[in-house]
Specification:
The protein has about 475 residues and is of the alpha+beta class. It has two domains: about 230 residues, no CATH class; about 230 residues, no CATH class. Helix 1 runs antiparallel to helix 10, helix 5 packs across helix 7 and helix 12 runs antiparallel to helix 14.
Length: about 475
């Protein structure tokens, strides 16, 4: 008996379809059958929505666990396997030290809840990922709104949804519950025939799984490459065995420099020995500047960025250290990773790395403005970039630089702008899908291989940064 016919016999005996209704064609197109499965169609529909479309990791996570579950390969739906196949972790990695799967699972459950409360409120089937496990459950919407509070066994049995060709989970998990007639029909065959059927069925499933795997492998690998570039980048900064310092800008220092028209170098900043400058001779200006320069002030934009960075799934909370710029130590930039927010005028630690950069910030003392010097302009690039105060969009600029730390034992990420909008634009670009192509070029074989700098153009509209775009790059 052919494998396709054997499987149909088992399915029809369990699902109640008459054997006389069996189609004449033998064998099945496994990918096609999966595509016709309402549960798979629901998964594809969900990942196309706004809550998933912008996160390739969330989409990949959901499709991976749904695909494996619908192919009856639940043993592959573990934290370790998800970490390897979705997030690009090496086989055998320590999931206790790397909690990326758990972090994304929490977000996944939240997004699923949001989907079924809003645009998916009328779906006939609901998809649930129970807490503590990653095997998805497909339940009928008629179960009621309290389905998240049910035990997993109840969810799996309450209202199984199946296609004509699919063995219901309830029947597969509880075969003794079949009606007497169907049970006798299935097991009225002799023991040798049953052994043959079992072997043929196993061979058919393995063969069809192989066909499906080969058919989808190209697209799946392409997805993994796209999805893992961002993860590789942030994982290079946030490691389980190394501290990462996030250093927001010192707004008080920036105000002092504006008042006095002078630049405070790193040495003076560390010693709190600010030069008086030449722009203002008023004693109250100097006293105000000194007061601002000795207190802890930072911008709302920087606080927002620190919050966004702290919520990245790659972050190890025990290794994340937030330091005010004046409290950072030189050794921190030798042994650890660091993220420096703000230009050299508000975060003097950038000075240690700017000397080797192409896009350098400095203050034009004559006009008391800050600008970016493109040290080695390429075709189509300008030598100097500064905020265009006279145009309607008030075009401004930011820089992202990713360089080794002082001892080359880690990395330093610099996100800086001529103003708050420039800094925000630089960070927004790097933390969005717009940076994917760049990150793919600087990652090779699942490792970050190339330091880089990019120049960002955006608009300063109410100190916000709409639609930043990359206008220059240097990859070392």
């Amino acid at each position: 008996m052919a494998a396709g016919r054997v499987r149909y016999l088992l399915v029809t005996a369990m699902s109640g379809t008459d054997l006389a209704d069996a189609p004449a064609t033998e064998g099945r197109n496994f990918p096609g059958r999966l595509n016709r499965d309402k549960r798979w169609q629901l998964a594809l529909k969900i990942v196309a929505t706004k809550g998933f479309a912008k996160s390739s990791f969330l989409a990949g996570f959901l499709l991976y666990i749904c695909e494996r579950h619908l192919l009856h390969r639940d043993e592959e739906i573990t934290e370790q396997q998800v970490g390897v196949h979705v997030f690009g972790r090496p086989p055998g990695y320590n999931a206790n030290d790397d909690n990326i799967v758990r972090n994304y699972a929490r977000i996944l459950r939240q997004r699923l809840d949001s989907y079924f409360q809003n645009e998916g409120a009328n779906e006939e089937i609901h998809l649930v990922v129970p807490r503590g496990r990653y095997i998805p459950l497909f339940v009928s919407a008629t179960i009621g709104a309290a389905e998240d509070n049910l035990e997993e066994s109840e969810l799996g049995v309450a209202a199984p949804v199946s296609e004509a060709e699919e063995i219901p989970d309830s029947a597969r998990n509880n075969p003794i519950a079949l009606s007497g007639d169907r049970f006798k029909l299935l097991f009225s065959i002799g023991s040798h025939r049953r052994a043959y059927i079992s072997a043929a069925l196993l061979l058919a499933v393995l063969s069809l799984s192989l066909v499906w795997g080969l058919a989808s492998r190209k697209n799946w690998n392409l997805f993994q490459k796209q999805a893992s570039a961002s993860d590789i980048f942030w994982s290079s900064l946030f490691k389980a065995d190394q501290d990462t310092f996030v250093v927001p800008s010192d707004s008080g220092l920036a105000i002092y420099e504006d008042l006095t028209g002078t630049s405070v170098d790193l040495g003076s900043y560390v010693r709190s020995d600010y030069p008086p400058g030449e722009t203002s001779r008023l004693a109250e200006d100097l006293r105000l500047g000194k007061a601002l320069g000795s207190r802890r002030y930072t911008s709302v934009v920087d606080l927002k960025l620190v919050s966004m960075l702290s919520r990245l799934p790659q972050v190890n909370a025990t290794r994340l250290k937030i330091r005010y710029a004046r409290e950072l130590q030189l050794d921190d930039l030798k042994q650890s990773n660091a993220i420096l927010i703000g230009s050299i005028s508000a975060n003097p630690w950038v000075e240690l790395f700017q000397k080797d950069m192409n896009f350098q910030f400095y203050r034009d003392k004559k006009n008391n403005v800050e600008l970016i010097h493109n040290v080695h302009p390429q075709a189509g690039e300008k030598e100097f970039y500064l905020t265009q105060e006279m145009d309607a969009d008030r075009t401004t600029y930011g820089v992202i630089a990713f360089v080794p730390n002082l001892n080359h034992t880690g990395y330093v990420l610099v996100m800086e702008g001529i103003n708050m909008a420039g800094t925000e634009g630089a960070a927004e670009f790097l933390m969005s899908s717009r940076a994917n192509q760049l990150l793919e070029r600087v990652t090779r074989n699942h490792t970050l291989s190339s330091p880089f700098e990019i120049l960002i153009e955006t608009s300063n509209i109410g100190a916000n940064a709409p639609e930043p775009k990359m206008i220059g790059e240097r990859i070392n």
